[in-house]
Amino acid sequence: MDPDPAAAKDGNQIVVQLFKTTVITVAFISCYKHNREDNPSLANIHFTLPDSVATEKKTVLLKKKKRTIYLTFDDGPNKGTRKVMQIARQEQMPITMFLIGEQVYGSKEQTATYDSILQCNYVQIANHSYTHAHHQYEKFYAVPDSAVKDFIRCADSLKLTYNIVRTPGRNIWRTDAISSTDLKSSRAAADSLQKNGMTVIGWDLEWHYDKDLKLKNTGDEMINQVDSMFVKEQTKTPNELVILAHDQVYADASDSAELHSFMQKLKNKDEYNFDVISNYPSIKN
User: Fold this and answer.
1) What is the phi/psi pair of residue 273, to 5°?
2) Would you tell me how many other CB atoms lie within 10 Å of the CB of residue 21?
3) How confident is residue 21, by pLDDT bands cut at 50, 70 and 90?
4) Residue 22 and residue 243: Cα distance in Å, rounded?
5) Predicted confidence (pLDDT) per residue in 215-267, tens digit
6) pTM for the whole thing?
7) Residue 138 and residue 143: Cα distance in Å, rounded?
8) How does DSSP classify residue 67?
9) For the chain, the helix, strand and coil percentages under 3-state DSSP, each to the nearest 5
């Protein structure tokens, strides 16, 4: 049977139409791809849902807040001061030394040590009184005016830049945010120091030593205490910890090695910042 001419004509039209559609589609894809490659702005367009929907799936990543440790050392300059300073320099660890004015002029060696402290970029100097109350603490704090004058004398003799003090034999705080006195008999003297423009800094954790000037705790035990105090929120200011140590202990080689290990391990934990005491919160200078 011969083919129907009308049907053949319709078939040819369909083929032609399909060919045109294919050519147009290929051309469009080629142009779109070319524009994305030549125009990065097109490639970077991102379509988002309306705010009312997008906010429901929004994820907020909170930066982990680091805690800060302030390593402070009392009673220098003395036989252990240079070792403490050397370790701080080796570890590039900022520390604060609360110095006794009378100690600086106690001997040529102590004066030379003080001069070395002044040249150390990792040590900040603060006031630990001029006489250290001659270790007669009750008598010292019973006369507030005399106590104030003792600290002023230290500041003047050492030409101290910061008006930050630590009271000998007492854990006293007087800052813009903290007012704490360990013994009521010392309260009047502490208030007088603050009224005379001094910021009084105590401590949260002490590294204790015995009568032979030997450490009672290892560095690892101290680190456990540091971690515990932060976890239990036992510091005067949240996420800020002031540690008290004493220079004279670290004249001993084994004890200075414990201090060095303590600093290294704290740094390796990578969760603590270290700073000098003038950067403690609520201190104005």
Assistant:
1) -95, 160
2) 10
3) low
4) 79
5) 999 999 999 999 999 999 999 999 999 999 999 999 999 999 999 999 999 99
6) 0.77
7) 9
8) E
9) 50, 15, 35
Strands 164-165 and 199-200 turn out to be parallel
d(CA 246, CA 22): 87
Q: Give the orientation angle of helix 144-158 with respect to helix 187-195, to 10 degrees.
A: 50
Helix (H) or strand (E) holding 69: strand 67-76
Residue type, 221: E
Distance (Å, whole) CA 240 – CA 70? 8
Q: What is the mean pLDDT of the chain?
A: 85
Degrees to nearest 5, angle at CA 77 with 73 and 83: 70
CA dist., res. 254 & res. 268, Å (int):
21
User: What is the amino acid identity at position 120?
Assistant: C
CA distance 250 to 258: 9
Give CA–CA dist 30/200, Å, rounded.
Answer: 75
Residue written as token pair 């502490």: 190
CA pair distance 84, 259, nearest whole angstrom: 8
Both tokens of 55, joined, read: 């906010």
Give the contacts of 19 (CB within 8 A, at least 6 positions apart).
none
Bridge-based pairing state of the strands 67-76 and 95-99: parallel
**Dihedral of the alpha carbons of 266, 268, 269, 274, in degrees to the nearest 10:** 50
Please state, in angstroms and rounded to a whole number, the distance separating the CA atoms of residues 152 and 163: 9
The predicted-structure confidence for 178-199, as pLDDT tens digits, reads as follows 999 999 999 999 999 999 999 9
Please name the residue that has the structure tokens 């910021």.
199
Q: Which helix (H) or strand (E) holds 274?
A: strand 272-274
Asked if 166 and 202 count as a contact pair (C-beta separation under 8 A), the reply is yes
Q: What is the pLDDT of residue 270?
A: 87
